[in-house]
Design goal:
The structure is a homotrimer. Chain A has an eight-stranded mixed beta sheet with strand order 1-10-12-11-13-16-14-15, with helices on both faces. Helices cover 33% and strands 24% of the residues of chain A. By secondary structure, chain A is of the alpha/beta class. In chain A, α5 links the parallel β11 and β12.
Chain lengths: 429, 429, 429
């Protein structure tokens, strides 16, 4: 049994029913649950009306209840059963309407008749309900009661932040988003995997880098966070990942930063190539999440994405079918392992220099294995190749790529050669 | 009906009968006809004997009449019927010769028995006639009268030049050659298409660049022109095209500059890829026209060629079969369109910078299409991709290449974003 | 008859019986034979105990006799018949042992039952015999006499060096190794081909470069030589080759320097591509000879290898089957020709500049062939292409690569154009 996968899935289940949006109490409640798991998390509020670059923090939206009652008095749509039923940011309404008028406020998917779609309307005021095409087809004519007990008013945008200091002020940045209601792969997998990675980092005795980890609403949250921290982030962030769609059991995916050649990209490609060589490589033209902000001109942070099935690329995306059957313990665990391996590679990356000229004499230091096996032969070869490229010019990651081995195979060899003072670091890579 | 194609073909027909060479009255007459179409054209003369780099302007050659009369007194070769019959730069002759002696002065093509070849002898003094292999085979023995009323004497080399000033002193350079007698694709298509492109440019209200357009004899003309204008051209010319073989209806072709990576090359490749993806890409080793001079060491102008069927690569090349059946209105129009598109791309190329940090809020500016269609979706995607790369580092052409769309698709989007002050140019690209 | 190949093979035969190791009289005897062929060769000795970077010169090993006598008194193993029978650096022994004890000191190859393996034990003290698996299987039980009359004592490491001065102090470096006993491709082919290349160089009237040629024991010899000459070599060596495995009749092989893009690599690739396009390209990860030292971090000499069948890649490697049937006159000649062509390319490599602007007028200098043939057409094309790239930026080797011809085709053309002062060198390339 994979205990870690189960624990992540349990946290997903706890968070699933909460009605989240880009603002409101659902965000606060979600961050509260995350803080129970990650005490270092600090919650921040940005007031409605604050200007963030080209944007303004919108009014806060909260919803208590909503339903549609059919001509016979049956609640055929009930917010208490699924928060997907209501269009996000719907205005309050309490009226009686004909079926014809109701139809103009219903959203369904003819091609996926069993699915309730996920719809929002942040920037145009309206009200609406989402419904499966199957249910919609059976609506009888007559008079319907539509009721949404929501509120759109001045308040704030809520986000969570964790800073874990390391030996260096240079930072690794993790960003994930918490603005989606009852949707699992996109997006509870991101916050949950990020929380567990943060817990692992928190337990790490000696971090090479400082970690900046944020749980924000997508889009406006990233913009708002950047508008408050851009200068320091541009100075410090060495690598970052947008953590999203990282919990199902199908493919592994990589989406590059705009630059395409940052440390974040190099690490992600290295990890994918060795752990999941059949991963899908997207391009920056396929982007669709917060890398749109983090990599925009003048921001230019080194942020890529490592994912399982990418947003927009799986049939359940943005529907009620993206649920906790789609996201599994093993799916979350696979995503966690990839992200953690990326972080381990960054932590161990450094430029190394051989302290002697020509090949060192390994015999006299007992660095050759005494028993010659296939495995020991491989280790000697990797050690000699590592030595051959430790010229003070190549990072350990460069070397691993050059000699065609997973970087993590080299960690113990580097330790051994450092102990014998044959390799010395010349600086962070 | 393609009126522009027809008008270009009509000009070809007007110019076709004139006997052109690298010097002489044929050149002057040709330039006179072109000037009727393009009043900005200025005619220049360079005197015989002027030293141009390693070369010297040769004596001027003129011819009034020529024929061969057979033993029965029939004019079997008559210059009045085709100027191809006479070897270019033939010395005057008026003699009676045996068939055997005549044979030593005849040029024909055994592999293309119906074609009269195009032959010149600029640098070795001789006289000769070109004839079809078929006709040659039927020559009867006996005594022939050979008559060439030509003259090789001090004079000048004639060329035409058009300068169309633009906002910038930086120049786009177009060069085409007018030294071929009655040959159509190679070479009346070049001068005629260039004339019509120059007319279009002349009518353009607001040119970004200054245009330097020359109509010269190939080889010695390019050398002579360079020897007089090299310094200013090296400072100013940003891109150039050698306009040749641009009037038949078959393939599209591209031949790079020697450098291979100039603006001229980047534009030509972009236009070809999007307009005629099955174009033929030659290398600089396939060169054979005035890029030999424009791209030579120390000259190094950014000159590439966009062509239809390239010189040397079609069976009718340098024979009487390269006529006005081979060159067609639609062939000329296709070539014109490619060259013009190259120029439009250069005119619109600039480095752009987004004026806001993070993605701009397009809603508040009404920049999202109100009606969502497949086409509007494409336009939004192109707009967002354009914005994503407008970082002050990429030219519009770079961006178009990066995001995989024809540059001209972006022109109206750039205009709209400039109007909203979301994009500003940071300089010519 | 290929006289040169025969002469090289004869020298191999003369050297074959000598028992060589990384130190000892076999080295001195071998260098003596080479000096008979190459009087410029100077022999050097480095005393036991001298520290060379991370290493120390080991004690000198000499052996006079060795055998194994079976229970019936037959010498079943006799050093006088083959020096491969004794493990290199075996301690002296003179004992009677049971078959069981003997087995622990025997080395054979179950997969190659007819072959005697080549085994050494430089850094761990032991004694042992090598034997064919076939012979081993027939050993009868009983008592065996084992006898090795060897000596391990203070002395020196011996190597040979030839310096052939050239116009430039810059050097071409050739290194080959002489520490293998009766083995032919790996390694008598290297010393013998190097000797004959050195003889050719010695006879060259006007060398562009100085040649530094060493005959050393592999590994420790390279390290020792570098420890004594590193500073001057780093300043002077422009290109170098490790000469090994260059005498059989099968494949041609190339192994790059660590950098991969040195003059040595560029030349080797050019020569292989044109002379033996089906050559095998190895990577630096396949290394296994003295490039391990020459290309190590901080040494970084531009040393690649051009070989026939590479060490470790042919079945006879490091066994008694690597003999003078495997190495042939034609095999040696093929290797010699490749190495010599590399050297000729380096000797002729220079950066050239056209002295005129635009194409030169070749007629007036008589540089066009008077008779037009297919061959003359090719020569004119190569001449024009050479001129087109003689811009003072490209070396002749760059140009040959760009225009797709063997560099040696251009040598006579360069000479002709230099004679006419159309090309001038702008410096060594």
């Amino acid at each position: 049994m994979d205990d870690l996968g189960e624990r992540m899935h349990r946290l997903c289940r706890e968070l699933f029913p909460i009605c989240r949006s880009i603002t409101g109490n659902g965000l606060r409640k979600t961050l509260g649950v995350l803080k129970d798991n990650l005490p270092e998390l600090v919650v921040h509020e940005i007031p409605t009306g604050e200007v963030c670059f080209d944007w303004t923090i919108p009014r806060e939206w909260n919803i208590r209840d909503a339903y549609v009652m059919d001509p016979d008095g049956n609640k055929i749509i009930d917010f208490q059963n699924s928060n997907l039923y209501v269009v996000g940011y719907s205005l309050p309404v309490d009226r009686t309407v004909t079926l014809e008028e109701l139809q103009g406020h219903l959203y369904s998917l003819p091609d996926q008749p069993a699915a309730i779609p996920y719809v929002t309307s942040y920037y145009e005021e309206r009200w609406g309900f989402c419904i499966s095409e199957e249910q919609r087809r059976h609506l009888k004519s007559g008079t319907y009661r539509v009721y949404i007990d929501s509120e759109l008013s001045n308040g704030s945008l809520t986000y969570g932040e964790v800073i874990l200091p390391g030996r260096s002020e240079k930072e690794v940045f993790l960003s994930t988003y918490i603005c989606h209601p009852s949707l699992a792969n996109n997006e509870l997998s991101g916050p949950v995997v990020t929380t567990f990675v943060a817990k692992w980092l928190s337990g790490l005795k000696d971090r090479s880098y400082t970690y900046r980890i944020v749980f924000i609403p997508e889009g406006i949250g990233a913009i708002a966070y950047l508008s408050r921290h851009l200068e320091v982030m541009k100075q410090r962030v060495k690598a970052g990942f947008n953590v999203t769609c990282i919990g199902d059991d199908r493919s592994y995916s990589y989406l590059p930063s705009r630059n395409g050649n940052t440390l974040s990209d190099q690490v992600a490609l290295h990890v994918m190539k060795h752990m999941h060589p059949d991963y899908i490589a997207y391009t920056y033209l396929d982007r669709g999440s917060d890398e749109r902000q983090y990599c925009s001109p003048g921001i230019d942070l080194p942020v890529s994405s490592v994912m399982r099935s990418k947003y927009g690329e799986y049939p359940e995306y943005h529907t009620s079918l993206d649920d906790l059957h789609l996201v599994t313990p093993s799916g979350l665990r696979g995503g966690y392992d990839v992200l953690l391996q990326c972080i381990r590679c960054i932590e161990h990356n450094e430029t190394l220099k051989l302290t002697v000229l020509c090949e060192p004499q390994l015999d006299k230091r007992g660095l050759y294995p005494t028993l010659s096996t296939k495995e020991s032969g491989r280790q000697v070869r990797e050690m000699m190749n590592l030595i051959a490229y430790s010229d003070g010019q190549h990072s350990l990651l460069d070397i691993a790529d050059k000699i065609g081995v997973p970087m993590w195979d080299l960690f113990p060899i580097v330790d051994r050669l450092k102990t014998h003072r044959l390799l010395v670091p010349t600086g962070e890579a």
